[in-house]
Design brief:
By secondary structure, the protein is mostly helical. The chain contains five helices and no strands. The chain has helices at 2-25, 34-54, 60-74, 76-89, 93-119. Helix 4 packs antiparallel against helix 5. The protein is globular and about 50 Å long.
Length: 121
């Protein structure tokens, strides 16, 4: 268990650093944060690719380093996307749709609420 934590720690540092490099390297188009979109797309692709590639092997450390660590820190959207796809694959359509609504609408509303609360201080 401790070794898995170390793999997540190392991968997380790499993923967060990569995300920051993308932020610095890709300019916004007007107000649109293209770097975030690119990171979410690449992170989701990476997560799906590594998951399928490594799920047929017993190298669980790969999951901790690359999926929980790098992909998790690079973009949490990859985890959200993967979990939603898994629900669709398991024919849990209502839960998948509910997950999409909550993670998008509720989280966006939460940003606004957090900003409003911070304005009162």
């Amino acid at each position: 268990m401790a070794i898995n934590f170390i793999f997540v720690l190392i991968g997380g540092a790499a993923g967060a650093s990569l995300r920051y490099l993308f932020y610095l390297s890709i300019p916004k188009i007007g107000v649109f944060p293209i770097s975030t979109l690119v990171v979410n797309i690449l992170g989701s692709f990476f997560f799906g690719f590594i998951f399928n590639l490594s799920s047929y092997r017993s190298d669980n450390w790969i999951h901790y380093l690359l999926l929980a660590g790098i992909a998790g820190a690079f973009t949490t959207f990859s985890t959200f996307s993967f979990e939603t796809v898994q629900m669709f694959r398991e024919d849990e359509y209502m839960f998948a749709i509910f997950n999409i609504i909550l993670n998008n609408v509720v989280c966006i509303v939460s940003i606004f609420l957090g900003m409003k609360l911070a304005e009162s201080f």
